[in-house]
Design a protein that fits this description.
Length: about 160
């Protein structure tokens, strides 16, 4: 089973009504030992940073055309803790409610993410964002380009898309 590292980031530029976007980079080594990267970015408007983080992970997982071992590296505690601390299991058991019977936000994207990760073995790891962390910086440039209104782009090695 191929191992893939998925770096993801979202950028709301501090204004959910302004430009925003997600960045994702899939990194993997092929059967010949060659390193490949597949970059995805897209601009969105009127959405939140958390939604963009989720969309970045979904885009990366959906871009894989076969089951893989995937490590998701994200600066979003919202995304990572949902899995690492089993929040998502609790949300499903409680009918997508949390805390004092507050509805969980982004349920449409959480369901899509659960479906996207089904064929893969996925682990999530949090890294501190905006502090010069080299793993976090892998996607910052993509998210910034997307936030600046870059058109949807897909620059890919055809072997993975």
């Amino acid at each position: 089973m191929m191992k893939v590292i998925l770096y993801t980031d979202g950028s709301a530029r501090g204004n959910p009504d302004g430009p925003g976007g997600y960045g994702a980079v899939l990194q993997y080594i092929d059967g010949n030992g060659k390193l490949h990267e597949k970059e995805l970015s897209a601009g969105y408007r009127k959405t939140t940073n958390n939604r963009m983080e989720l969309m970045g992970v979904i885009a990366g997982l959906e871009a894989l055309n076969r089951p893989c071992m995937v490590e998701v590296i994200s600066d979003s505690a919202y995304v990572v803790k949902a899995f690492a601390e089993h929040w998502i299991d609790g949300w499903i058991r409680k009918g997508w409610m949390r805390g004092k019977n507050e509805p969980v936000k982004n349920v449409d994207l959480w369901k899509r993410l659960l479906k996207a990760k089904e064929p893969h073995q996925v682990t999530f790891r949090w890294v501190k964002g905006h502090a010069g962390h080299p793993e976090n910086e892998r996607c910052d440039c993509l998210a910034t380009a997307a936030a600046d209104g870059a058109p949807d782009t897909l620059l890919a090695d055809p072997g993975v898309s």
